Amino acid sequence: MTAENPIVIVGTGLAGYTLAREVRKLDKTVPITLVTADDGHSYSKPMLSTAVAKGKSAEDLSMANAGKMAAQLGVTVRTFATVTGVHPDQHSISLGEETLPYRQLVLAWGADVVRPKLEGNALDQVFSINDLKDYRRFRACLEGKRRVLILGAGLIGCEFANDLLSGEFSVEIVAPSSQVLPGLLPTPAAEALQAALMEQGVEFHLGKTALSVNHTDQGIAVRLDDESLLEVDIVVSAVGLKPRIQLVKDTLACQRGILVNRALETSREDVYALGDCAEVDGQVMLYVAPLMACAR
Fold first, then answer.
1. pLDDT digit string (tens) for 127-181?
2. C-alpha distances in angstroms, 228 versus 147, 149, 218?
3. pTM for this structure?
């Protein structure tokens, strides 16, 4: 490691770009390199579940491309670069055959969607929406369709339901939980939210799980674990997120997420984790407010 090596931030989501901005407030000259597997566009992730009713395309949601962000922050942004190895002893990461050294490394690469275990021949019509690329594909396939089934009654599932209702879609929700927003709302508040969504037209199938998704002449048939069939046109999976730890689970201390202390330090020197991939004091906070607080 040398003083000329950059601070390397893996991830150009809200966590990565916010951290780079905060570092620049403290040091105008330290070299910073952001690495991302996608195109590096800056956008507000919460808008992914609230943009349909507003008629927003993926391009509309993008606030700045990687080049603009690099110029704005005075950083280098490496797009379409996949991290294939993290080497704390060598203070470097691997990008395929390339080795990128760092002075400090910050993992801000987020979380992966939890994929429901489904059978059937219509799995291409089940959409998990976790980034702009996912949203772009979903919007394209949504054209001309009216009946949407949402898997999951958590925060994102309910946000999608509200958004699609405003866009005049027919919405049904299937979830194994007995209430909406389990773990987030007490039962009376959850019942009030469910009643409000039902009043707007959402049909709930709580305490049930989807087993298969198959094409029919009328659209898609979704079979539930009580053997009932739901006829819809498209399925949105919002059953949850899991921190990305696979690449570093044998290198860094991990449980649900990458274990960090309140200074966001991992088990290895000069390696930090931030945002959806990090576990702080036993908690994985998959929300914007704690992410922003940690970045600052």
1. 999 999 999 999 999 999 999 999 999 999 999 999 999 888 999 999 999 999 9
2. 17, 14, 16
3. 0.90
How many domains, in total, are found in the chain?
2
In the numeric block, the tokens 């579940």 are attached to 49
Specify the 3-state DSSP secondary structure of 278. strand
CATH number, domain with residue 37: 3.50.50.60
The rounded distance, in Å, linking the Cα atoms of 181 and 226 is 22
Which residues lie closer than 8 Å to 37 by C-beta, 6 or more apart?
A: 80, 81, 82, 83
Both tokens of 87, joined, read: 């080497």
> What whole-number distance in Å separates Cα of residue 222 and Cα of residue 220?
6
Q: Is the dihedral of CA 167, 172, 173, 178 positive or negative?
A: positive
Q: Does 135 share its domain with 82? A: no
Do both 207 and 278 map to the same domain? Answer: no
Domain membership of residue 1 (yes or no) is no
Alpha helices in 178-281 (DSSP H): 187-199
Query: What is the residue range of 285's domain?
Result: 7-112+242-295
Structural domain includes residue 161: yes
Tell me the per-residue pLDDT of 5-26, one tens digit each, with 9 for 90 and over.
999 999 999 999 999 999 999 9
